[in-house]
Design goal:
Blueprint lengths: L21 H13 L13 H20 L5 H38 L2 H12 L1 H6 L5 E2 L3 E7 L2 E11 L4 E11 L2 E11 L4 E3 L6 E2 L2 H4 L4
Antiparallel strand pairs: 1-3, 2-3, 3-4, 4-5, 5-6, 5-7
Helix pairs in contact: 1-2, 1-3
Length: 214
Amino acid sequence: MENVSGLGPQSTVPAEIDKWNWGAFLLNWIWGIGNNTFIALLMFVPFANFVMPFVLGAKGSAWAWKNKKWQSIDEFKAVQRKWAKWGVFVLMAFIGLFIALFSIIALSLKSSEPYKFAVSKLQSSQKVSRVIGSPFTTGMPSGSMQMSGPDGKANISFSINGPSGSGTVYMEATKNLGQWQIHRMVLEQASGDRMDITTSSSVALPPTVANGRP
């Protein structure tokens, strides 16, 4: 077949390359610039950016053949394979970064004073002992914790599993003048029943926990 790439609408697209393009799907606008397919810049248009990766994946190969001059079909395939490999690499890098960031946040919450005090309070609660049992284990916490000098705020949740049951613990705490206080802690059992673990409107961390000393 005569090479008629790079002629725009007049180009005839060989059937063997008119297939799904992973490089266009994964790298979208970056791939578009590299392949003279500037319609990929619609990725910067709100709402259009949700569908453009799929449009580029389906139509990208044909557009790239029409918009850029290629020496041969083999060259086109080789270049598109490289784009696909880079797309997979970037995707894996983003996933790895997300997992690392999530782990750092979770470990930070797990080592925080509010979380440690929450677990201590659960261990001493007769209510928890009746419905969850002892000993129990807690999962990796999630939520947020904001600090500003001697003040702060924490909203944390984590799973709890024991020999008698399981559930999720939700906790609200604030830090005022260097001291944390738990304002509310709720245990939601697997059945959906909710139990307030906080026995008073505000529970302050004892000095042994707040100061990190025995």
